Amino acid sequence: MVRRVAYRKAAVKVALLYPSTYRVAMSSAVYHMLYFKLQDEGFYVERFTADKGPHGVEDGTPLAQFDYIVATVHYELDYVNLVKMLIDAGIPPRAADRRRPKLVVGGPPVVANLEPLAEFADAEAVGELEPLWGPLVQYLATGDEAEGLYYPARGPHPVEVKYAKHVEPDYRRMPEPEAAFSLAVELARGCPYSCLFCMESHLTKPYRPRDWRVVLDEAERLRSKYGVRPSIVALTANAHPGFKELLAEAARRGLRLSLPSMRAELLDEEAVELLAAVGQRTLTIAPETSERLRRALGKEITDEDVLRVAKKAGELGMRLKFYLMVGLPCERPADLEEVTSLMKEVRKVAGAVSLSVNPFIPKPQTPLQYSPMAPLAYLREKIEHLRRVHRGDFSFYDPVLGAVQAAISLGGCDVARHMEAAATSPPGYWRRALREGLFDYVFKPREDPLPWGHVKAFYPPEELRRRYLKYLEEACG
Questions:
Q1: pLDDT value of position 176
Q2: Looking only at Cα atoms, what is the longest distance across the chain?
Q3: What's the chain's average pLDDT?
Q4: How far apart are CA 145 and CA 122, in angstroms?
Q5: 450 CB contacts (<8 Å, ≥6 apart)?
Q6: Is 162 part of a structural domain of the chain?
Q7: Fewest CB within a 10 Å sphere: which of 148, 208, 233, 432?
Q8: Is 50 exceeded by the pLDDT of residue 1?
Q9: In Å, how far are 214, 328, 357, 396, 406 from 380, measured between CA atoms?
Q10: Structural domain of 132
């Protein structure tokens, strides 16, 4: 049973909103963290998700009756859900038309580019929760602007991404059987790599691995408290210097764990055996593309690495899932042929393989932010080719949704009108807008200054530009 702050007449009411399904919301570690930490400060809190409607999960209070809405967003298409939730609740979506509730938003895509939600948000959190907690609490408690948050009404102005130096354990969760990661435990913040397409690895620098012993004790305590298998989460879990030690000790204690996608070049036979020993039944690897493009992207994963890991996983009876990407800049027919051959070899050594194919989507704060997205017809053709030659489970991300995601993530504040129109229109708005050429900027190269140029992340624009040109030289030469 989750203990909550009871409603008091004088309490500031905060709606904790996640603009996706309840299942996805309850898989977000920061959503759990916010729920309890906001109550620690004396706020009255109820949860809201897109599939639960405009009334709180706890007491059914209408969203419009809250003083503040705190929304955490991890996916650009959920911006439209956020706008729709406001409209469905009878709340003017644009901040200029609204006195209450005030809207505070945060999350990786928000940090990368503040402008798409600038017309809707009263404040935006630029960075991780811990260093922004003081300003957030002050803003919610007083309504006065507290330095540390970003206030879109001031217009675009320089802001620096804030990072936590340390991550303290918190043993409070709301375990839900339907959630994939309801007992998520962070192994590290950030990633020691900087793959050129990966927004989060660029945004979350510097890399901060936690003490694996602390992580394991936290996972064991959560398992004992809630009776649910913990998930160890990180952008690159097996890059942690104590990764195998953590798995070995977890196996010794009989603690079963769930872990995310792994980098194949960092997995030896012992590591795969330890993953199986802690109960990991599916091994997920993201080769993305051919060796040639992988190297240019910053992924030093060879086909030999992939086959070695696949063979060992097959021997241990583990299921294999692979993520591939099509439409990367400078992609050639030979790259697709190579990855097709690789998948055939994987099936020979490991049996059935689940394959997920995604179009390359340019994202802010990455070197490939300057690159155009491949034409939709090209992406459909390549995905269909991989579907035909693959034997086994196959899924893909719709290139149209990829283009919409890019249109939002790469857009300025003018994209707000499209999100508002999509939230109030019958299905099909985005497809019509694409056909009409309203988002042609997605399919064209980009130059500085960019709409998110005032967000000062770990890498300055000139370094991102240098890395982009180096990629073009390596991959297109």
A1: 83
A2: 67
A3: 96
A4: 10
A5: 364, 369, 461
A6: no
A7: 432
A8: no
A9: 46, 14, 11, 10, 16
A10: 13-157
